[in-house]
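Instructor's aside before we start: the two examples that follow are unrelated to each other. I chose them only because their records fit on one page, so don't look for a connection. First example below.
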Amino acid sequence: MSGEEILSSNEEKYNRSQPPFGSRSGYNSRTGIYHSLIKLGIKHEIPTRPDLNTANFVLSQFPQAHLAEARIAFIDARTNLSVSYGELRRSIYSLASALFHGLEVRKGDVVFVLSPNSTLYSTICLAVLSVGAVLTTANPINTATEIAKQVHDSSAKLAISAPEELHKLVPTGVPTILTSHCSDGNMLSVEELIKGCCTSPELPQVPVAQSDTAAILYSSGTTGVSKGVVLTHANLISIMRLLLWSADVSGSQDDVFLAFIPMFHIYGLVFFGLGLLCVGVTTILMQKYDFQAMLDAIQKHKVNNLPAVPPVILALVKHARKATCDLSSLRRVGSGAAPLSKEVALEFRRMFPWIELRQGYGLTESSGGATFFASDKDAKAHPDSCGKLIPTFCAKVVDIEKGKPLPPHKEGELWFKSPTIMKGYLGNLEATSAAIDSEGWLRTGDLGYIDENGFVYIVERIKELIKHNGYQVAPAELESVLLSHPLIVDAAVIPVEDEETGQIPMAYVVRAAGSELSENQVIQFVAGQVAPYKKVRKVSFIDTIPKSAAGKILRKDLVSQSKYQLVSKL
């Protein structure tokens, strides 16, 4: 019996020995644990075969050979180039063979990928994983210094780079191949390796265990230094099986998806790079997000399903009616990677009543998953929730001062346990032990609560709470109020040190074009809707709010800017 089977068997025995938990919330008052009430059927059971790797799992879900040639996996939104599942399978086999036999990439070698979204991205990822190598991905807009740090930290043995990003890798000295052929150079490319391989390649037979490391993904570092999140093949297989389940319960098997979420990020990698290939859908690929290009792609390709982030949903609310576009094909928009405010969600539903809007929640450390709305009815009824625990997940809400588990409706730090939880942080035992306790519970760092019906609510990052006169103020709540103002396009709230009260909330605001909205008007607008201790005390107007590729506000950048402004005034 494998380790995972033993774990599953022990968990079943443990659950049978416990008193029954709440039939609506999943809460066990004796243990303080919330259980997902959604059970996976036999069809979606997570594979426990110890020698199954991520690539083999994904390829096993591809359409049968006689259907694979006609079924389109990807369409490049810019060039209209399409790739069938049959072509994709052959490309993965060819590249894997070339990496293993030609470039001698071996099990455990780390391969660094620096590229925007492309029809080759999944091929690269799956070829790397199939030979037992470890995938690490980076944001193409990162600086050469940031890239050098990740190459060094991950101990990358080989890099695969888009031609336009190559100059950032040269100083690292890591051997590099390009994604596509560059006419003015002699460097090897992925395209050439695929074309140059034999006509009937086979995947190299490399023994890979589910417990082996599959990927090292770097957290965005919105509040501190980014860390390498180590994910195993078991983690990725588990989250893909859950994505398959969610596609089934949502009826998304025949949808056309649009991908502008970057594939280097856990959200994009799990959805577009790996997971949706298991569902067999067609994905329209955008190299990067552009609002008008997104609208054009939805109209041209009759996109049904749009996995998105809050800034994109906000842009649809603020600008879609002014743009000439047809969004009638859209039937579902998902939101993840950052909190979506209740006000924006309600306005989106008012403007686009035929589109389902479902928010979810997850972390890189949980392979991108944790909560999900299985029905639009529930999503409408709970617009400020991010759904219920998905199958295989348990949760605790832990008092941040006393460390004790809390019952429904009490706010505390969310802790999770699931087969998707990371192995740890690369080379950082201290950070790993701070994040995962001895029983395997992941401390998320997010303040939240779970209600009597099992719906999960995220309040704020604990580190980002503003401490004002002994009270805790959540920036996300104030941002939600600010975004409801018709003349405010975007907003972010940060703490500013204050000698008398500890900290005060300061807002950075992006005004609508032509608006002369004043600082006092913004302060009064917020003051009329929140408790006195939550009031915004300072306002600074800014052209754009700095955000990560996944749409998270980079508060540390704004904190640095506020300190610089203060020093300048002094």
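Example two begins here.
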Amino acid sequence: MNKTSSRRDHAWYLHHRRPKALVPLQQLAPGDEAGVWHSQGMEPLFQLKGQLPWPGWNMVEVDGESSVSGIVATLTLESTRRQITFDFPVRRGKVTKRLIYVPFGVKKVTFAPMNAAGTFTLRHFQFVWLTPMFAYNRMLQRLTSMHQHYRDLPLHDIVTSLKQQARKQSRKWQTIALEDYDSTFVSMSTRRHYQQWIRQIEQRRAPSEHDIATQSDFACSVLIVGAVVGDDESALKARLNQSLASLAEQSLAPRQAILLLSTDTHARLREWLDEWRRELAFLQVIESSATSIAGKRREALSRAEHDWVWYVRPGDRLAESALYHAASMAGDHPEAQMLVADEDSLDKQGVRHSPLFKPAYNLDLLLSMPYMGRAVCYRRDRLTQLSPEAAGPQDNDADWLDYAQTLSLARQQGFVADWLAHVPHIAYHGVPREEEADYVGLVQRHLDQCSAGARASAGLLPGTQRVRWPMPTPEPLVSLLVPTRDGVDILRPCVDALLERTDYTHFELLILDNQSTCTRTLAYLREVEARDARVSVLHYDHPFNYSAINNFGAAQAKGSIIGLINNDIEPMEGTWLTEMVEQVSRPEIGCVGAKLYYPNDTVQHGGVILGLGGMAGHAHRFFQREEDGYMGRLKVTQNLSAVTAACLLLRKSVFDEVAGLNEAHLAVAYNDVDLCIKVREAGYRNLWTPFAALYHHESISRGADDTPEKRARWLSEYAYMRQAWGELLDSDPAYNPNLTLVHEDFSLR
């Protein structure tokens, strides 16, 4: 190394500042192992001793590991005059980096490593001083990829926008940029920040009087039907009062409301109900002799007079704008037979919690769980055409009845998605049931009526199902394509595990060798090809192009099913390929993806969500292996817009139909997302299953493109995807517009 470069490296090293010690101040206790700490509450706190950050722009780098997913760390800078805090998410196995501006005079720095009880390890913590020019560039780069107002804008246009805002507000554009940059690190948890979201986001979206007037033609009957029993008159009144009050508060009033009560209950509450009838001109109180909820629903439906009906259970509430949002969605989707809205739950004090921000129509998720919930508005004539389910103990289970009705509608409509429209607003506040129901029998009956030949069994979570689809006869040949170049220490464990740990043996393994020169690699390729007749080595003697390599392999594949497999994949159990072949053999299914883990047992891939990070990202990345995920979605089969090609199966006929991978425009990045979107646009449903689990030995902290050439290539591929699929990338039907496009944790937008 010459003296000039040595001096330069030494100067850069001086930019790095690492604390010599982290002194626990509160809610912290050392663990049994070195470096492990126990957080004993929501506010554990260290004080940093030793090298504090230089004044000016700094990059904070934190590499930590926690027993809890979705945590937020907080750094606090204190001077004699003020205190500044910075929040940022900490992901297990990922170095978190964020810009901060350190003022002069900082005397004390504290660090809260997490905002929950649990254990954590801090492997790396440092400050890196940056020049202002470098800091501004990093800030703008994050805004263009992560901020909803600046997404995909050239950096020059972002600066222009910031300067225009600065002139209007008489502020510095750098200050506004930093505020917007900071906002991209805020992860609003559905557990901890829901009340804040209600105040700051939901209440701002309330419709105006003009908006409401445009939906005045919407004709809906609200049917309050359910179990109203007990001797406690005050409790009866309290439950009914909740539901009736929500009707009185509707911004768009229902045309009709029907309350069904037994003769005895009606007699006991007559005077109180008369007061409600005087307040609600549309309210009809009907005495019913029906002994089950199912019977009461049929009676209420027979008295409904309008196009749409909404069942409300006593004690539950319709949100203030529920009918308005339903009307708006029904007007935008005249073909819809059912409207499914988002919802949340009420605790005993009436406080809202646990929001369920649902995807749009998702048939395989529906078979896995009754995700439509209670916030459902039906076309009345469609309900009257449904044949009643067989009578039984479920006649008094409203959740079971809702699920049965939805499955019946799905059978009527087939695979067409237009019959169900999603209302992306919280429209229903429900009192949660005390225990999960068993829906296996109901789903099995649905499958039998569809002549699907599939079998339903209990799923990984209470109240969920796993559906096993029939294996075709004869079993189809699967062609697993594994591109590689050198790297025998990576390739060998992958290939050996695929051969030894796959119960479904009717496959060929095509190793696509892209100009390997390593003698050990070449020797292994010869050895494994001679050892196992299922292995063939195909030589692709051209520059690296992931799409072209796999298209080359697919053209020579003998199987009717193609599997795109990375050379660092390792099955965790033998049934992985059986599950994926059963799923991909369904004629309506396109691409099938698996659940992938990092070697440290955190989730690497729970499916791909379009729009995350400006393009696409992996759902639930860095979640713990045992965690259920948002709405339990880490443990149920579901339709997703895209899955990763690290482990992806699809029928060769479908691959050929969409012209395979795009080797002209997407040589390295996003080719799997492009493939999945093409398959979806061709009319197939893509699917992700948690019942095929594999390790993906991809580096958890993969860096960005580190040369000008790679950066230019990535920008070109990014621009192509935005141009080709821009609108679809911003509105993933398997996601929800109320959820973040910055983080992979299903937090609030």
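Residues 15-130 form a domain with the Jelly Rolls fold (CATH 2.60.120.260).
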